[in-house]
Amino acid sequence: MGNKIFAPKGTKDIYGKDVILWEKIESEIKKLCKKFDFKQIRTPMFEYLSVFDRSVGESTDIVSKEMYTLNHRGDEVFALKPEGTSSVMRAFIEHGLGNEITPAKLFYITPCFRSERPQKGRQRQFHQFGVEALGSVSPMIDAQVILLAHTFFKILKVDKAIKLKLNSVGCPKCRSEYYDVLREFFIGKEDKLCEDCKIRLEKNPMRMLDCKRESCKALMEGVPLMKEYLCKDCKAHQEKLLNYLDILDIKYEIDYKIVRGLDYYTQTAFEFVSDLLGAQGTVCGGGRYNSLVEMLGGKETAGIGFGMGIERLILLIEQENPNLLNSDDDNIDVYIAPLGEKAKETALKYLKILIEKGLSVQTDCMDKSLKAQMKYANKINAKKVLILGDDEMENGYFTVRDMETKEQEQIKFEDIIKYV
User: Fold this and answer.
1) Which of the following CATH numbers is that of domain 332-419: 3.40.190.100, 3.40.50.800, 3.30.870.10, 3.30.450.20?
2) What pLDDT, in 10s, does the model give residues 51-76?
3) Which residues of 131-159 are buried (b: 16+ CB within 10 A; e: fewer)?
4) What sign has the CA pseudo-torsion 10, 206, 168, 163?
């Protein structure tokens, strides 16, 4: 026998009861998005590398360090999808979705891939639920997107463990001035910056505020904040959004250090975070990206959206709402316990009939004794067992055992469908 094989590090098999939980979450996503009139979109798991170079930003950790790239027959270079938004934007442009109803409201559930050190709440293959609303510059749509995420957390009963943090990262106009101020602030401190922040200082100095290294955090004391440099339009946008959130009774905290890890954000940036997840506390992150469609070659189109990590969400559910993990969705309605070849034929016939009537049904295919079959039926949480022995076959009835009450009764073959 050869060496045992394992799933690649940073990936996880989803099976058994886990699948039921995933299906529940995905079902709730679809129901909620229908209520908010978001339509599903499914994009490929890989794109041309340029889709992410141009949108996420070459200076980001995702593009510079974490993307899985694929060389394909010559000069074509693809990348496994590291996040969902850029692919949706590419599809939005390619299929002219901006020519239909606006705002275009789309949602996705997709696997994503990042080559990083696996840890709790961070995998190399993970899954994102995301929404994108394109075509509106109004803070009204910002509020609705945030409300959708907030409502989802309430549905899953994890909202009490989550805080909403908000910031405005400005627009290219006011951010240009802010970048100059930041570069001036760090004059003489360049040598103390980590290698990543040295690059960020040149390309996108605002992202230095998001650095997780303690040495860089120490240098941030007294750093000027974007709020002091917001232009009139960006200030008005944020004030209106905060007013809408107050009307919706969504509590929030202004956090001027939130800049998000991607280069395409403008104005609104937000995160839903939890203290229960340790270092990987962000469950959902998003914001406005008014220049992203244009960056990818489309017409200037305002947009806002978020991405939510499903694996992190499940970690939160395990702590805050473990009852969601306990499901009777995998219970079997009927187990047919045949004894003998003729009984097996009858069992197979009724297996088909009952399944066609919408029930979940199993029968023996291991030649087990009646005792072993009853034990198995109990293990799979069968609600009722239809016993087919010699007497039952001879007289044309099932002995029906209710597995909860342990009561038994005899039901004629022709009456079993109505009874069950």
Assistant:
1) 3.40.50.800
2) 988 767 665 666 667 889 988 777 78
3) bbbbbbbbbebbbbbbebbbbbbeebebb
4) positive
